[in-house]
Every structure is written in structure tokens, then in C-alpha cells.
Amino acid sequence: xxxxxxxxxxxxxxxxxxxxxxxxxxxxxxxxxxxxxxxxxxxxxxxxxxxxxxxxxxxxxxxxxxxxxxxxxxxxxxxxxxxxxxxxxxxxxxxxxxxxxxxxxxxxxxxxxxxxxxxxxxxxxxxxxxxxxxxxxxxxxxxxxxxxxxxxxxxxxxxxxxxxxxxxxxxxxxxxxxxxxxxxxxxxxxxxxxxxxxxxxxxxxxxxxxxxxxxxxxxxxxxxxxxxxxxxxxxxxxxxxxxxxxxxxxxxxxxxxxxxxxxxxxxxxxxxxxxxxxxxxxxxxxxxxxxxxxxxxxxxxxxxxxxxxxxxxxxxxxxxxxxxxxxxxxxxxxxxxxxxxxxxxxxxxxxxxxxxxxxxxxxxxxxxxxxxxxxxxxxxxxxxxxxxxxxxxxxxxxxxxxxxxxxxxxxxx
Length: 413
Known about the structure:
Blueprint: E1 31-32, E2 53-54, E3 62-64, E4 67-69, E5 73-75, H1 84-92, E6 97-99, E7 103-104, H2 105-109, H3 113-119, E8 129-134, H4 138-151, E9 155-160, H5 165-168, H6 180-194, E10 198-205, H7 212-222, E11 228-235, H8 246-255, E12 260-263, H9 269-279, E13 283-286, H10 295-300, H11 313-331, H12 333-339, H13 344-351, H14 355-363, H15 367-383, H16 385-393, H17 404-410
Parallel strand pairs: 5-6, 5-13, 6-8, 7-8, 8-9, 9-10, 10-11, 11-12, 12-13
Antiparallel strand pairs: 1-2, 3-4
Helix pairs in contact: 4-6, 11-12, 11-13, 11-15, 15-16
């Protein structure tokens, strides 16, 4: 579903490209179905109906604004979580692209030291990487996008889907759905300031039943030049409740000539595959489903089977110790110890620790003690039959029930 994929030329006696209407499906990377006998004429003798298209595999590459993406499985922006090492973790496990946590355009514009030092840090092995910005001023967005480009971003994403009140009350996030002219100006400003492809993440509407976000997405592409749309097919007021409207996502994907990336509620590999097929989208974007479970990217890219047991205790411990090391590298020992308290429960779901150890991790374990606890839990889980059985039960499909409040809080649209 690449923007620049080769287009099928019109028949010699067919309409000229200028009169042919929207680009054919191959303009987004879809491939025609295998050749066979031509279908019956669709209302006109001698004129065959268009060949059906086959949705690419999630492992197939695509492009966003000319930036090559290795597959169609992306890490969504996660507020307060999606820093460089979380993005790098997703890429290590197979994500084709990782999007940063939401970054204030005003923080970058005013050169806030901590914003620049911590949120603009990009690891060399992350690329391609997208930096998500939020804000409500086109000139500030222009400046912020320029700063993100200087830091090494390959893409700029603008958040137009976050329903959190403190974001919306400033006119940013999902509030932009009600101010389409400003939304268009933000995309234009970011494109001009950065010189990079600019994407948007948007909800289907503000309230249940309205299509204002859908309508805005079309304008952002056709009038402002957005290079892709991350589409969460739920209303902003619905949060993460209710059934996603995959049929509306399909209509958007069919309407636009740029990639449409479906997000929202993709808590397992199975759910992501269902959303991809049901929506006809060009890619999927995983948010809560990746928290403490980077192996979901391996499942979706064929490196790990969906069925059967989850990661082994040793795999979980090794991964969590890697996260602890990277957090210490990023924040220093004292800040990292506090910061990691939000991470521990996600990994403990696999290890099922005794309550006293889980509580210690959450309350007062410094990093040396946290590492020791993780090592102990991995050894116990490996040698204890009950823990092993519990691990086997925690397959990707079965991880729907977990600390929902913590996972809900970090998704930015």
C-alpha cells in the first residue's frame, strides 16, 4: 500500500489518466488478484469489471511519503512511555515503525531543555522513526517540526485524537476535529518547517455517531498533503470503549490514496489481524497490546507462533532487565527506579510473583534490588510447575484481562 507503488496503466481505449478518477488500488501498494478468465461485463458489453485486489500481508513493506517501512505493524504513540528505548524495543522485536510519545510543540519551540534532552533522543537503530507532536498554533508547530527534523526524525505525526481533557482544553488533540482550518494549518506548518512527510492520528469523530474526524482526515490528505492517516475508529468521547467502526475505516482506506493505519483496541496479535482484515487498512498500530509484550510484534511478523505458550520466564526476565538497563541509561538510577514502577506490572503478568515481591517492586525497590527480584522470579517460574502452567495460559489471545487502568492511561488517541 505504498504511495508510490507502480500504478496499473489504463487500457489503450480507456479514459486518460486525468479523467480516470481516483488512483487505482495499486497506487497504495495493493496487488491485483491472480489473473484468470475476465469477469462478466459490468453493465457494458466488452467492458470487464475491475480486477479485485488482494490485501498485502502484514509482513509486506510499504511507504509513507517516500519513507520505506519494512512491514505493516507499527508501535503507536504512548504518552509518558514511548521514549527511545521503548521504540527501540518494538523495532528489535519486529515493528516496522515506532512512533514517539506525544511531544509538546510549545516545549520544542521554546527549547525546553528537558524536552529536547529526553524526548528528542533518537537511537541510531530506531530508524525509521516518527515523532508525534501536539499543539494548537501553526507557527509553533512549524518551529517544533523543524526541531524534530534536526533531531533525526524521519516522519512527523500530529496528534488529533487524544481525548484527555487537559490536552483538548488547549485546542489540541481531539479538539482539532472541531477546528478543521486550524488542523489543516498545523499539517501545512509541520510540512514546511520540517521538510518531512507529515502524518496525522485522528479519531472517527468527537461524539458517537458523528463523522467529523473521518471528514477531517480526508481534508487533511487532499488539502494539506498529509502523507498517511492513523485512524482510531471510535469517537473521542467513547475513549477506548465500544466496538471500533472498521467499516468506516474501510471506506476511508478506499477513498484515500495514502496509507490508512488502523488503531484502537488491538490488545493481541489475533485482534490486530482481525482489525487489519475487517478494516481493509494499510497497516495496524499497536498500543496497549505492546505494553510488557513486545513479542506481539514477533507474532504479527511471523517470528513467533500465536498459539501455544507465551515467552519463557527467562525471555521475560531478560527483556525486563534490558528495559531496566536502558531506563537507567536514560534517566539515571534514582529517576529510573521511580519511572519503572509503571512498567513492572506489565511484565509481572507473565511471572506471577508473590504479592510481597510485586509490592516491593512497586513501592521501594532500587535498581539493584529490582534486578535481584527479577532474577529470582525467573528462576522460580522456570522450576515451579504451577508458574509454568500459568505462563502457558497467558497466550496472546488470553492477555485481554490485565491492569486495564494503567494501559488505558497511556494511549494518546
